[in-house]
Amino acid sequence: MSGKVSYLAGLAAEDSVARQYEDAGHRIMARRWRGRSGEIDIVAEKAGELVFVEVKASKTHDRAAQSLTGRQQQRIIRAAEEYAGKLYGRTNVGMRLDVALMDQMGAIQILENALMAA
């Protein structure tokens, strides 16, 4: 049962984060986009810039941040490059990679440009 609870909690966290990006003027282009390189929780766009968002939820923001491994970061970067390549035919487009942290109280902390493409 905890697997299903975790899955549903993850969806709820992603919904909250997507709403926050929309409230800030972003257009949500994809949710849980999956390519050969991996999955991206949220793809948003604002003023021509693509924003790729990894959502992490845990008891505290610190614990959520600690759950993002180096291997996951590399997967997200590759998936973002794959998405941009499919959308624009190239990867040299305006983009940033954010991490959105949600604590058990539902407070969201967005770390812009938290992941840097190589």
From TrEMBL:
Gene3D superfamilies: 3.40.1350.10. It comes from the Bacteria. HAMAP family: UPF0102. It holds the Pfam family UPF0102. It comes from Donghicola mangrovi. Belongs to the UPF0102 family. This is UPF0102 protein HJ526_04260.
